[in-house]
Amino acid sequence: MSLAIANLSWGHPLPGGGWRQLFDGFNLSCQSGQFVVVIGNNGSGKSTLLNLIAGTLKLGGGTITLGDRPLHRYRDHRRARWLGRVMQNPLEGTCPGLTIAENLRLAERRRRSGLSASGLLGLRPSRGDRHRYRELLEQLGIPLAGRLDTLVGELSGGQRQTLSLVMATLGAPELLLLDEHTAALDPKAEATVMGLTEQLVRQLGATTFMVTHSLEQALRYGDRLVMLRDGQLIGDWSAGERAGLTPASLRGLYGSAIVGATEPNPADAPAAP
Questions:
Q1: Can you give the pTM of this predicted structure?
Q2: Which pLDDT band holds residue 104 (cuts at 50, 70, 90)?
Q3: pLDDT tens digits, residue range 131-177?
């Protein structure tokens, strides 16, 4: 499903007084099924942009549209019908006091019903649910299929983030938001989660936004790379254009006011809002 962000504005008060207008007339659109990687220095607006799309922050102005749905008019728990999200902290995406099967059930029911998570407590997976979850984990090559009754709080950070990713993609969301979802992991767990990320994104065909501080990830994954600075889009590359970049060249662009783009490939151009 295509995503269009038009004339977005948002700001916040500063400690001690004053105001910072981060986004002011910001525009960004992408085609259905596009995997967009978002980079930028600290404070550039990467995670804030995902929070605005997800509804955890309220727009100051503008519109965010998923297909023909005005997301900005829905509460965040209503958006859960169409959105999946994985946070940076592995502790945020799962319920540690519930089992693996119960976490998967809650994620699935939330997407189907659009209810808030608090309204789903007490639901338990059926025998059929457990069978489906076991098959899913086996098909994805995740070594948790035989541990459905294990409390999630007993899992490692990498295992919890793997489970968070599966939970976020249950029910085939139309939009997947990944907010530095490997930043807290060791290199081995990071590689595992990124491999699963690429696999799930391709299988689902979901439009995906991935925020990352890893320039290596930015150059390896996704169909499109965009760079933010102070709430402005200063760089936009297709996968083909990105091939000529290196971590060092990207790092050198972080302080630029605008990045000159090469002539875009029409097949990779973002859809018009």
A1: 0.89
A2: very high
A3: 999 999 999 999 999 999 999 999 999 999 999 999 999 989 999 99
Report the CATH number of the 3-10+22-268 domain: 3.40.50.300
State both tokens at 164. 């968070």
Copy the structure tokens of residue 57.
């922050």
Q: Which two tokens stand for residue 85?
A: 């999200």
Where are the alpha helices (H) located in the chain, listed in sequence order?
Answer: 46-54, 76-79, 100-113, 127-139, 157-169, 187-204, 215-220, 239-242, 247-253
For 173-214, write each residue's pLDDT tens digit: 999 999 999 999 999 999 999 999 999 999 999 999 999 999
Domain map of the chain by residue range? Answer: 3-10+22-268
3-state helix vs strand vs coil in the chain, percent to 5 = 40, 25, 40
Which tokens sit at 26?
């910001």
Residue closest to 237 by CA, chosen among 210, 272, 263 = 263
Residue 1: which of 30, 27, 25, 21 has the closest Cα? 30
Yes or no: say if 205 and 174 are a contact pair by the CB < 8 Å rule. Answer: no
Please answer whether residues 63 and 70 qualify as being in contact, where contact means their C-beta atoms are separated by less than 8 angstroms: yes
Phi, psi (5° rounding) for residue 190?
-60, -45
Direct distance between the N- and C-terminal alpha carbons of the chain, in angstroms, rounded to an integer: 12
Q: Would you state the torsion angle of the CA atoms of residues 76, 80, 84, 88, taken in this order, to the nearest 10 degrees?
A: 40
- Whether 198 contacts 181, CB under 8 Å: no
Residues with Cβ within 8 Å of residue 217, at least 6 apart in sequence = 37, 182, 194, 210
**For the segment 221-268, what is each residue's pLDDT rounded down to a tens digit?**
999 999 999 999 999 999 999 999 999 999 988 866 555 443 333 333
Look at the block and give the residue holding tokens 């590689």. Answer: 191
The residues, any chain, with a CB within 8 Å of residue 56's CB and separated by 6 or more, are 76
